[in-house]
């Protein structure tokens, strides 16, 4: 499918949630019990939420974009979480992430050349010869695991990246967002914007603190998408100190439920931080949660080629204001 061709007969969420269901073999032959249902067009309309007065930062929330098809499918993905927590450094001190997480990529080619910090700290080497590149954040370097289409859970990640490409391109076609020239150029050169996925597995006691996905390897010209399965969790966005006077609110809160899709675009990573806070006593205690965060990262060999790609996707046309 040409990601820049228009499909105006239905909102993008409707067509693409169907494509996601049909394309991933993880949901095939599961029977009808507990199977997911494609929601009506009205239920899948994107909700645009500007975060700043100029709409320089924005999010799009699509409720029930793609719900977990069954308890069996959820459990199958849940069982793939790492056995332990990944180490990180905060202000020079070593901690462990308060959740399970793993990085996957759909890169082509390449080879593993050195041990990651994670492997050095555990004294073990990863025998998976598919590991090719790494990603550094919070004082630690972690390897990507390139997706194997023969594994159902990893095929689903590949499908998510393809759907993310098509969805963002559809939003561009429909005038909801306007692509920067560098984004269009990158898409035409590689026919692919999204090339990696961070999966987080949350138990009820897990959380992630305030942070921005603005590491050097991130391509900030491309929006970040996140799909949620399982129990509902609060998602908060707070402006960085220098942007507080330009923000529409000191905190934006969204309750992400099973199947919800969140898109963060514009200068969101530069101007805001986000978190999944601890569950409060007054919150409804929910079950486990899985999130897939789809991103575009720069390949090591392409670092110089991305030098001119930091102009962000601009604000949604309907929401822009004259300066």
Distinct helical segment count: 6
Strand portion: 25-35%
Rg on CA atoms, Å:
19 Å
Secondary structure category: alpha+beta
Largest sheet: 8 strands, mixed
> How do the strands line up in the largest sheet?
1-2-14-11-16-9-5-8
- Measured between the Cα atoms of the first and last residue, the distance is 38 Å
What is the H-and-E element order? HEEHEEEHEEEHHEEEEEEHEE
The stretches of 5 or more residues where confidence is low (pLDDT under 50) are 1-12, 23-42, 109-115, 119-131, 302-323
> Using DSSP, what is the number of strands?
16
Q: From the structure provided, what is the oligomeric state, counting identical versus distinct chains? A: single chain
Keywords:
single chain; 323 residues; alpha+beta; eight-stranded mixed sheet; four-stranded antiparallel sheet; 6 helices; 16 strands; 25% strand; globular; disordered N terminus; disordered C terminus; cytosine C-5 DNA demethylase activity; ALKBH2; ferrous iron binding
